[in-house]
Design brief:
Blueprint lengths: L1 H49 L24 E5 L4 E5 L14 E2 L12 E5 L21 E6 L2 E14 L14 E7 L6 E12 L1
Parallel strand pairs: 4-7
Antiparallel strand pairs: 1-2, 1-5, 3-4, 5-6, 6-8, 7-8
């Protein structure tokens, strides 16, 4: 019985040692595990901080001033061949009147509208308001330009034809191209009007 008791004591002692080692190991591993996770968290946090975008201050952009045309003109029509350089007003401006200036006629588009039609009308003849008196000298291939909002829109005349002067005008143009249309009375013919169709060549 004494021997059995000694074996039992030894067995129990060994078991307690093993259990103690397991508990110690468990706590140690748990501690290491916690530290490992902590390192990961710190590593991720550090990585996140390192990748935070830095704010770079840029100098404010200086916007170029919008070109102001003289006399409040919307645009200026220039045709060098006939020494014409004359401004015209916007549609709603009281000065947009054929008896005073080149007229920006409805229906019309602004030069920067894609595939639009800038429609200008003026008198011919010998009076001071006959701004289109020399249009009859133009031929297909001649150049006209419009200065508008700081840019120069250059057009080349592609067609010239006449129509009956009855208060209306028929426009024949390629609607897939930006167009300048100029209309005035036909030289030496009070019953007809001449239409000049020009297409946009460049914008500078």
């Amino acid at each position: 019985m004494s021997k059995l008791s000694n074996k039992a004591v030894v067995t129990i002692s060994i078991s307690l040692v093993i259990i103690g080692l397991l508990i110690f190991s468990s706590d140690y591993l748990k501690s290491k595990k916690e530290k490992a996770y902590e390192k990961v968290r710190i590593s991720l946090q550090t990585e996140k901080e390192d990748n935070t975008p830095k704010i770079v201050e840029e100098e404010p952009k200086i916007e170029e001033p919008v070109e102001v045309l003289p006399n409040g003109y919307l645009g200026i029509l220039t045709i060098e061949k006939i020494n014409l350089q004359q401004g015209f007003y916007d549609r709603d401006n009281p000065e947009n009147n054929v008896d005073r200036n080149i007229t920006f006629l409805d229906p019309t588009n602004y030069p920067d509208e894609k595939n639009g039609n800038v429609f200008l009308v003026a008198h011919s003849g010998s009076s001071s308001i006959a701004y289109f008196k020399n249009l009859y000298q133009l031929e297909i291939g001649d150049i006209a330009s419009i200065r508008y909002k700081g840019k120069t829109y250059t057009y080349k005349i592609a067609d010239i034809y006449t129509d009956i002067k009855d208060g209306t005008v028929t426009i024949y143009r390629d609607k897939n191209r930006s167009t300048l249309t100029m209309v005035t009375c036909t030289k030496d013919d009070e019953t007809r009007q001449t239409i000049y169709i020009a297409y946009l060549e460049s914008v500078n």
